[in-house]
């Protein structure tokens, strides 16, 4: 069975990375064969991973026997006059905005689909409104580690503030003189992002106020870095305060104070990094793929 995947790619994000993972999971399943449609201009944009996804690509939308949709992908079908009807639809939910009444994302929940959420928190948020079954499959990651900064060297702090550059600059000002700083406030290729994480010993990571998962802290844990990150709801399954990371209040003073304490306490840095790495080891792409393929098989057999 062919399954349509669609992408409107304007720049690399964690959401695109996870959608790419699910396309590859589907391709390996033996249950459905992914076919990809990208909006005009998407394929040529820097950082687009889908040109190497291995799936055949089409340049015009048409009806398919099955669909895999995320975010605003529903609007692409609507614009093309395509209604899935009784065809099976899998809807990947990566954010909490889907549960906000009055938004287009909330409106799509009324459409029948199997919904896969990247965290239990996202699943709990949409379950009261979703037309169809809702399942949580926590995000998995797969990283080839770049060269890592030894943790027994003087602390170096990465401030990952792409989603909140103003606060990132505030934190950097408060930490001047405490340690060497790497301030990141603009998007960069994932390989560069991971390399800059690996070159730090402490990663301060700034999410949106509410996220469905927020992947960077888990990536930092997988690299054995010590993480400072505020609560954003979707990170509660792997960000455990005082165990795998520090989770101060979401303000510059609290975040900088937490990082300052870690600079001065190498033993705590090492203990948090060790626990974080163990947590990240439970979030593998292989585990994510196995959970998805079990659901995919059940869903297609029932369709």
From TrEMBL:
The keyword Transferase applies. It comes from the Bacteria. Keywords: Transferase. This is Glycosyltransferase.
